[in-house]
Structures are given as structure tokens and as C-alpha cells.
Design a protein that fits this description.
By secondary structure, the protein is α/β, with parallel strands linked by helices. Helices cover 12% and strands 28% of the residues. A hairpin with a 6-residue loop joins strand 19 and strand 20. The protein starts with 5 loop residues before the first helix and ends with a helix.
């Protein structure tokens, strides 16, 4: 078990110590659930009243929040408690699952595949012909990577993930459980006789940049002609759908159950709220914010904030909601 004194934690976070505690800290926890040997976090003044009832011996607190820790307890004051929390969680990170063999005997690796130095491949994995893994790649059990793929160095892929043929993944990516990359796009047209549907072949691939993180159950369809692209640093939550030929800029974020239809373009730093949907061939400019549950059917310029279904300017939509509430009360 990893343990630290509050002084050690304060030094690590380059914070300012207020008060003191003799407790040896065994880990972080929410204010409501912390024990006397745990440290907690106060990033917003509205949570400060919970401190009095909490059993935590210490808390990391944003330095603009007023208050005292109390007898036998301590605050580590920092500029941003949320960022400090991320550092502390890394400090207490448990060890990952054990690999008894660098390459498990039950893994199937094609003779033409290239496996980089330091890579680990778990039980039941499949690595197809002419696929190349960079250095220090980790494939947890039952990952499938088909033909002619490239996986960048230090990328971690969790169990159940399938990467279809000809896809490219950058360095330092993290794919959680059951991700699907490179499946066929959803493309059909009525048949000439009007009695059925004709499937449109998708012969492109998926290209994923460096430092991309994908949550469990994310599906990214291959391009119809060229590539579906995720830019560097993009973070995708669980159960998100990315349609064929869509392209995201750098450092975009998409929350759970949201989705992009085909050929959507996101600029850099776009944030899409949970359960929001972006219609096909729509372009969202740099820094656009889409509220949760919205349906975006038209282009949004740089810096725009949209909300609602159909989505419109967030301030205008809020005014409409207020007006509707007034009408309901008057009626």
C-alpha cells in the first residue's frame, strides 16, 4: 500500500500547507466518504460546508476558498484543486494487471507482423499480416488487430477492442474496453427496382492521432473513400459513434452517447455534450460548445455555443425556454 505524509503531498503538488496532521495518508476519497487516514478535495466553495462533517485528515483546496482546516487537520492550498487532484490520483494509481509473459502463448501473431521492443500482448490476442506495433505497446487479452494496421508507441488497448484492416493509430493512445475501429459506415441507397437497399462499400480507413483516448464501446467507422480522422489529443467518452469520413481537430472532447453522422468536421477544441447529435456534412468551428442533448443541423462558426433541439445560439435558446415557462404559468 502506498502511503504519504501531508508534507510529502504538499511538496509534490508545490502547494502551501495550512494546519497539520500526524496521520499517514493511505489514499484520496470524496469528502462524504473519507476516513481519518484519507485526503480529499475542495475545488469549489459550495463544497466547503461538507468539510466540517468529513472525517478526512486533509484536503487539497483551491487557494481562493476561505476557511480554516481545524485542529489536527490540514489544507494543501493550490491554484487549481482539480489539476492537483489529477496529480495525486496518479501518485496513488494501483499497479496495472500482471503480464506473466511479454507475449502470451495463446496470442496469435502473423509471421509478417512487426512487434516493437517492450510491447506486451495478452492471452487470446490476434495481430494480423503486415501489422506493425511500435515500442512499448500494450494489448490486454482478446484484442484483435487485423491486416496492415499501424499502432504507435506506448499505446494501450484494453480487452475486446477490434481494429479493422488498414487503420492507423498514433503514439500514447488509450483505448478502453470493446472499442470498434474501422467498421463499415452506415451507407445504403434504394435499389433500382425499389424493392430493397443497396449497401455502399466503404474502402477507406480510420486514422487516429497521438494522445487520443477512447471510452468503452466507442465506434469509429471507416471512410467511404479516404479516412475518418481523429486529431491529436482528442478525448471520447463511452458509447460515442463517429460516422464515416468525419474529422475532428485537435483536443476535441465528446461526452457519452453523443454522435457524429457522416462527413462531419470539428475544428480544434470543440466540446460536444452528452447525447448531442451532429447531422451529416455539418462543420463546427474552433472552440465550439454543443450543449448536452442538442441536435445540430447547421454549421456553427468559431467560438459558437449552441443548445437545444434543433440547436440554436445558447443565449437565444435559454430566452425561448424562459418565455415558454412564462406562457405555461400564465395559461
Amino acid at each position: 500500500m502506498k502511503t504519504f505524509t501531508v508534507e510529502q503531498i504538499c511538496e509534490l503538488l508545490q502547494g502551501e500547507l495550512e494546519g497539520s496532521t500526524r496521520q499517514i495518508i493511505t489514499g484520496p476519497e470524496q469528502l462524504e466518504y473519507a476516513t481519518s487516514v484519507q485526503i480529499s478535495f475542495i475545488g469549489n466553495r459550495k463544497f466547503f460546508p461538507l468539510w466540517e462533517k468529513s472525517k478526512a485528515c486533509a484536503a487539497i483546496i483551491t487557494n481562493t476558498i476561505k476557511g480554516e482546516p481545524g485542529e489536527g487537520r490540514a489544507f494543501v492550498r493550490v491554484k487549481n484543486a482539480d489539476l492537483a487532484m489529477a496529480q495525486l490520483l496518479e501518485l496513488f494509481m494501483p499497479e496495472p494487471p500482471l503480464f506473466e509473459h511479454p507475449i502470451h502463448p495463446t496470442a496469435v501473431i502473423h509471421p509478417t507482423a512487426e512487434i516493437g521492443k517492450g510491447s506486451r500482448i495478452g492471452a487470446g490476442c490476434y495481430v494480423g499480416p503486415n501489422t506493425r506495433l511500435g515500442e512499448n505497446v500494450t494489448l490486454y487479452p482478446n484484442v484483435t488487430i487485423l491486416d496492415n494496421c499501424t499502432i504507435g508507441s506506448a499505446t494501450v488497448i484494453w480487452s475486446g477492442t477490434v481494429i479493422r484492416e488498414r487503420c492507423v493509430v498514433g503514439d500514447n493512445c488509450l483505448f478502453n474496453l470493446n472499442v470498434s475501429i474501422g467498421g463499415d459506415g452506415f451507407g445504403y441507397r434504394p435499389s433500382a427496382d425499389g424493392r430493397g437497399l443497396v449497401k455502399i462499400p466503404h474502402i477507406g480507413n480510420v486514422v487516429i492521432g497521438n494522445g487520443v483516448e477512447l471510452g468503452s464501446g466507442v465506434c469509429i467507422d471507416r471512410g467511404k473513400f479516404s479516412s475518418t480522422v481523429l486529431g491529436d489529443g482528442t478525448k471520447i467518452d463511452n458509447l460515442v459513434q463517429i460516422g464515416h469520413n468525419s474529422r475532428t481537430g485537435r483536443f476535441c472532447m465528446m461526452a457519452g452517447n453523443s454522435g457524429l453522422a457522416g462527413s462531419v468536421t470539428l475544428g480544434d477544441g470543440v466540446i460536444v455534450g452528452g447525447s448531442a447529435s451532429i447531422s451529416d456534412h455539418v462543420t463546427l468551428g474552433n472552440g465550439v460548445l454543443v450543449g448536452g442533448g442538442s441536435g445540430v443541423m447547421n454549421d456553427v462558426p468559431d467560438g459558437g455555443k449552441v443548445l437545444g433541439y434543433p440547436a440554436t445560439d445558447a443565449r437565444e435558446m435559454l430566452k425561448q425556454w424562459v418565455a415558454l415557462r412564462k406562457l405555461a404559468k400564465e395559461g
